[in-house]
Every structure is written in structure tokens, then in C-alpha cells.
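Suppose a colleague, Dr. K., hands you the sequence of a protein chain of 74 amino acids and asks what its three-dimensional shape might be. Before reaching for any lab equipment, you can write down a predicted structure in C-alpha cell form. Begin with the sequence itself:
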Amino acid sequence: VTGTYNWLVDEVKELGEALTLNDKKALEDEFADVIAWLCSLANITDVNLEEAALNKYDNKCPKCGKSPCHCPFR
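The predicted structure, expressed as C-alpha cells, is then:
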């Protein structure tokens, strides 16, 4: 688990770098990498990512309960 988590963290850092460069190809690659490692981490920890997201968000903001979100900008 630790190794997979570390890969995910590295990919999120690379996504941040791609965001600062505003490079569409790099952004596409890094978003794909983040999703892949996130799914891998969910899989090895026996978490159904789809169910977890639906349970938490269910087409509304988990904080204010509205869709679209009406939370003040943070």
C-alpha cells in the first residue's frame, strides 16, 4: 500500500507541475496517471471507488447538500 500511495503522491505532484506549465498534453498524461494510481490504491485496499464517490457526493455537494454547490469560495 505504501509504495502505491507514494506513486500516487508523485503523480499528483507531476500534475501540479503540468498545471503551472498549462501544457495540455502533459495535463492529459498526468490526469490519466493520477486516476490510474488512485484506482490502483482503491483496488488494493478493497475500496469500491465508484460506490465511495456515489455515497459521498450523490450528485450534490457533501458540504452544503446543493447541486450545484452553493458553498462560499475558499
